Amino acid sequence: MTAVEVSVVLPAYNEADTIEQTVSITLETLASFLPEDAYEVIVAEDGCSDRTPEIATRLANEDSRIRHVHSDDRLGRGGALEYAFDQADGDTLVYFDTDLATDMSHLEELVNAVRIDGYDVATGSRWMPENRADRPAKRGIPSFGYNTLVRTVLRSDLKDHQCGFKSFDRQALETLLPIVQDEHWFWDTELLVKAQRNGYRVKEFPVDWTPKGDSKVDIVRDVFGMGSQILRTFWELSVSPRITREVSLGAGTMLVVVALLLMTQYLDPDRVLAEMAGAAPEIVALSAVVYAVSWPLRGIRYRDILVSMGYRERWGFLTGAIFISQTGNLVFPARAGDAVRAYVIKARRSIPYPSGFASLAVERVFDLLTITLLAGVVMIGLAVTGSAEQLLTALTGDTVGGDAASSGRTAVAVASGVGLAAIGAVVAIVASARSDRNFVRAVIGRLSSDSYADYVAGVIEGFVGDVQTVAADGSAFTRVGIGSLLIWTFDVITALIVFAAFGYSLTPSLVAVGFFAVSVGNLAKVLPLTPGGVGLYEGAFTVIVASLTPVGVAAAIGVAIVDHAVKNVVTIIGGVASMAWLNVSLTTAVEESQSADAIEPETND
Taking every annotated instance into account, which residue ranges of this chain make up the domain Glycosyltransferase 2-like (predicted)? Predict the structure, then answer.
């Protein structure tokens, strides 16, 4: 008896009408160029709901060359293939779609490219100049666009990444699979891209291909799924390896320098420095102490969020985790520190990543809602007193300074949008938490009928479920809300003390404007927009303070700079101390937190 050399996997989901014929044609084609008993055909039946399992079992009982690999749950395209390949016996592993859209006359070339020619991976292509694939516009245009995007963004040399007609050397595949993260439709593309990046020999050859069945653009699979996976892979392969602490600090420093240089185009830096030099150092130190007091409140609020989700942790540990994550946000781009916090509570307290990110989402929503309410209350007061007209004049005129006014206008617009989004998010979360309807499945079901939608819905449901848990708990909702109000009040008081350090009396008017300026500035900086080289926070703070109080433009910018410096210094000191206390390396935490893309089972035990 000849040992099995080639294993052909047929991924099957509800293929009762065609699977028997597909298996028969596959066996007949393999027999035309391979010795008897040198091959096997595996029906990888992926949680079917029709008669496919019964048919596959019968075929396997009737022919020793046929095997049936069953999965009770949907594994997805990539997951089902990996599961079947793991149980295959051949050294050459092959798969193709069961609709036989690719002409089976190419099977010998596909198999022998790996078995005889020594390639590590071989794939059919519908986009090589010499092929004769029949591609209607509704298939061809999206396919061409997708493959062009992959070649451009992921620097692939291949023409076609999604053709369901591929073969692999077992050793090469076993090395590649651990670094392939997707388990669904993007599996093919990710495997081919990473095979090229890791130096494996990949053969692409033209095939005759005839479309079978209908095809349509699926929003969840094609846009949410494939698009996000292209971005995720680009980040993993091209961006993440270049993000080191030194690079991040250098880039951040350069941006600060550029911003300061651009600021000199509309404002005399000597005036700003003179204003800052006149600030009383002992009062600035007092502002740092006041700001430090707010950090235990952050830990207590985070404890209340986690308790409502079923996790009980000490507020001291959680305060340290927040310190580390906020320090990460100062050092690394794209708010990578948020993922660091999820990593810290996962590594030190075994809280699953989905719950870690959900707790962060709850915290962010409450932050945005609180500062929106603070800004809204003051705005009402400004409207009642007639001061709102002064602000409008400053935003539309040139009294504050060209770039500062431009930045202020953008800041107020962004703050308004973010504030409205925060209010809408809270209303939606509370409403859905009190409803028995599954809104996630309903919405995704309207957008997609693809199997990938089940995966997406499951991930979102777990995340939303944790968020809704807090919203449904009236006591927790109240405690977290009060905690948020106290935290942001301390944030504003810190800025007001800095005003006092600059020699300004804390009149009721200045206090009210301070609340408004800090709230709008924090809402604005949610989006990383910096028109004219001026940060949105500084722009909003300056235009609001300078237009509504006797404080000049130079002094307002000086207060904003010192206010930020005080808060950043307290954050870094607390972050360094917490890293030493909890034995956490910031760079390691950022690297490890990237594995959070893999959604894991969640338990509250």
Answer: 7-176
CA distance 465 to 455: 15
Assessment of whether the complete model's pTM goes beyond 0.85: no
Rounded to whole angstroms, the Cα distance separating 53 from 368 reads 51
The residue among 472, 440, 474 whose CA lies nearest residue 455 is: 440
Contact 12, 52 (CB under 8 A): yes
Number of H helices, E strands in the chain: 23, 7
Q: Other CB atoms closer than 10 Å to residue 375's CB: what's the count?
A: 24
Q: How far apart are CA 13 and CA 89, in angstroms?
A: 22
Does the domain made of 4-234 have the CATH classification 3.90.550.10? yes
- 416/376 Cα distance (integer angstroms): 10
| Owner of token pair 């893999």 | 598
Mind telling me the catalytic residues? 188
pLDDT more than 70, % of the chain:
67
What band does 603 get if pLDDT is binned at 50, 70 and 90?
very low
Assign 115 a pLDDT band (cuts: 50, 70, 90): very high
- Phi, psi values for residue 565, rounded to 5°: -60, -45
Q: Where are the alpha helices (DSSP H) in 202-349?
A: 228-234, 245-263, 269-277, 281-308, 315-331, 336-349
The residues spanned by each domain of the chain are: 4-234, 278-595
pLDDT tens digits, one per residue of 543-583:
778 877 888 888 888 888 888 788 888 988 898 888 888 87
Burial 248-276 (b: 16+ CB within 10 A, else e): beeeeeeeeeeeeeebeebbeeeebeebb
Instruction: Provide the H-helix boundaries in 309-335.
Output: 315-331
Residue 377: how many CB atoms within 10 A of its CB? 14
Pairing mode, strands 92-96 and 165-169: antiparallel
What does the block give as tokens for 502? Answer: 């600059």
Beta strands in 1-115 (DSSP E): 6-12, 39-46, 66-71, 92-96
Q: What is the CA radius of gyration of the chain?
A: 30
The percent helix, strand, coil of the chain (3-state, each to 5) is 65, 5, 25
